[in-house]
Specification:
Elements (H helix, E strand, L loop, with lengths): L6 H10 L12 E2 L2 H11 L6 E5 L5 H9 L2 E6 L5 H7 L6 E5 L7 H9 L4 E6 L5 H10 L4 E9 H7 L10 H9 E9 L4 E2 L6 E8 L10 H13 L5 H7 L7 H10 L13 H12 L2
Helix pairs in contact: 6-8, 9-12, 10-11
Bound molecules: S-adenosylmethionine.
Length: 287
């Protein structure tokens, strides 16, 4: 079996197996070898690596990963793709296919069994409908993780790496940047996929941090403050946090905490850095 990364071969496999694309699984298969090269380069896959691939589809990216890494485990939810993967990956003896929902896989156990508990690299052309649960689930978990290199919707990539004061900056930017350092590797147009997605795409690499860049007493409070601030984007922080359900602080306490950290009472969440949110969280912890 040759490389799949072109339209002709991909269509041939799909027709031969009478495969029907499932929209509900976010199936858009890559057909451009340059994009595949870019993903492998961005992920910096080397021969010692164990790679977890999310959503192999017909195995296009899996073939590239199998050639670069020591071992690949690829998790695919669609059982109709499993026999096809058996065929397209038959010449590789370092690939395991797991027919499961990635959100239900015990990834820490997989890293333990296959990589001796050492940090793993996660790679994938993600199903866009579950990008955030996949990425945040990995970052928040105790899975030993070196990096996540994934194709995501372009807007989501922009939000993940956005800086304070920009329109894309929000709760996702802060949550991702608390756990990882993002790096945008490539923009990818719809014509690099079959079928073409209705949105632009981008490859983003997230390097897992060893330690968060800020230290807080109460991580839960930090993330509640972040979420509440951006839920009510057009309000000042004092009003936004005071209206948020579940936060037990009065307007006066919030205003006082803002004064303590050197911010005005009329400040909006979108201008605060992660360090500012951490300082606010500490001020409110001792309020
Ligand atoms: N890697 C292939 C490629 O680049 O051509 C396919 C990428 S396609 C965008 C996303 C893949 O993820 C599909 O094969 C889809 O069936 C699979 N998928 C969707 N939801 C999933 C889930 N919850 N767990 C595992 N795989 C899933």
């Amino acid at each position: 079996m040759g490389k799949l990364a072109n339209p002709k071969k991909t269509i041939e496999i799909i027709q031969k197996n009478r495969f029907n694309f499932q929209k509900k699984y976010g199936q858009n298969f890559l057909i451009d070898s340059h994009v595949l090269d870019k993903i492998i380069a961005a992920a910096e896959i080397v021969k010692e690596d164990f790679v977890l691939e999310i959503g192999p589809g017909i195995g296009t990216l899996t073939q590239y990963l199998a050639e670069s890494a020591r071992e690949v485990a690829a998790v695919e939810i669609d059982r109709n793709l499993i026999p096809i993967l058996g065929e397209t990956l038959s010449s590789y003896d370092n690939v395991t296919i797991i027919n499961q929902d990635i959100l239900k896989v015990d990834i820490a156990a997989l890293a333990e069994q296959r990589n001796g508990g050492r940090p793993i690299k996660v790679v994938g052309n993600l199903p866009y409908y579950i990008t955030t649960p996949i990425v945040m689930g990995l970052l928040e978990s105790d899975v030993p993780l070196e990096s996540i290199t994934v194709m995501v919707q372009k807007e989501v990539a922009q939000r993940m790496q956005a800086q304070p004061g920009t329109k894309d900056y929000g709760a996702l930017s802060l949550a991702v940047q608390y756990y990882a350092e993002p790096y945008l590797a490539a923009n990818v147009p719809p014509n690099c996929f079959i079928p073409r997605p209705g949105v632009g795409s981008a490859v983003i690499r997230l390097n897992k941090r060893k330690e968060p860049p800020v230290a807080v007493t109460d991580e839960k409070l930090l993330f509640s403050l972040i979420r509440a601030s951006f839920n009510q984007r057009r309000k000042t922080l004092v009003n936004g946090l005071n209206n948020a359900g579940g936060l037990p602080f009065s307007k006066e306490q919030i205003a006082e905490a803002l004064r303590q950290i050197g911010q005005s009472e009329t400040v909006r969440g979108e201008t605060l850095t992660l360090e500012d949110f951490a300082a606010l969280s500490e001020a409110l912890t001792s309020a």
